[in-house]
Amino acid sequence: MTTATLSQPLSKPLSPTELQSFGDEIDALRARTVADIGDRDARYIRRVVKGVRYMEAAGRALLFIGIFPPAWILGTLLLGLAKILENMELAHNVMHGQYDWMNDPTLDGKTYEWDIVGTSDNWRKTHNFKHHTYTNVRGMDDDIGYGLLRIFPEQRWRPFFLAQPFIAVIFALLFEWGVAIQDLRLGRWFAGKMKPGELGAAFKPVGKKMRRQVIKDYVIFPLLAGPFFLPVLLGNIVANLMRNVWTFSIIFCGHFTADAETFPKSVLKNESRAHWYLRQVRGSSNLRGGRLLNLMSGNLSHQIEHHLFPDLPANRYAELAPEVQAICARYGVHYNTGSFWQQYGQVLWRILRHAFPSKPAPDAPLVQPPQLDDDEALSLSRQG
């Protein structure tokens, strides 16, 4: 349960008229941005591509002389930063189709393959479709706790969750592996609801990608270093751990802070685009931190704007944020933002608190119930 539902809701429920106007304003903002997309955005993403390549090349070169501690430290840092940038600002955003308009086959959202053990195809299914369509809807969005963690009290408590403070640490360190197996539905297999043959077929492309990544980072590059095999191997391990922990932190800060809300499946009934916009805002959290944080988070420091406009170039989110915040203020919709450490502290508290049994409160409504005129009220009372 969120802070919003413990006492007074942070966002007031909108009337049907307000909801429509809210959606219209978000639509208009999107249309103005789409009309302005062009060379500036193309230059930006190509600079990101070059930055990833140069940092990775420099990092790997330094690791090849990693017997010297300063070279190993700098090489590992550069490689880790390259992997973060590729994962967050390049791959994630490209796979959302943000740059499909460029008609560049290397930036095609439908074919881009990223530098982690999970397949892009599985990510496009679990993230682009399921998560962005059913954001924070309980029973529909598998990203709520990723099947491992109880983040909200609406999730059913089991004794297993007592271990989640320790599980969360392991999950952060191995986050890319968790993402890789998310779509395998292992819970169904453990419960006997999936045949081994079905699991094997689903695992085949995942296993192939895992094997390729492991061979690249932990066999080929260390072997190329010859006598410096071990420093290069260790550097690759640490760089991947850096990327995993950072990605985990940014994603969790964007979804599981104190003011982020979850929703029952009933909100999907006859859900309009304006309803969807409202749900995205109330289920998301932003981070304040400046241009460097924006870049290294893939602009997911503006998670609200990303959830509203997942297919717009992410470098636009910082410009859109003040306008989105102003629209929210006009309609009394809470715009959840805070510093990285403030939001991260709230995430850690959720992980610790909801490891233990906790009682949910009623869901805060998104929309005001329709108001009946006197004749309708009299008619209903007679029927009753």
Automatic annotation (TrEMBL):
Transmembrane segments: 61-85, 160-180, 218-239
GO biological process entries: lipid metabolic process
One GO cellular component term: membrane
Annotated keywords: Membrane, Transmembrane, Transmembrane helix
Domain Fatty acid desaturase: 70-337
Superkingdom, natural source: Bacteria
Any GO MF annotation of the entry: oxidoreductase activity, acting on paired donors, with oxidation of a pair of donors resulting in the reduction of molecular oxygen to two molecules of water
Ranges where the record places region Disordered: 362-384
InterPro entries per UniProt: FA_desaturase_dom, Fatty_acid_desaturase
Keyword Transmembrane helix: yes
The name this protein goes by in its record: Acyl-CoA desaturase
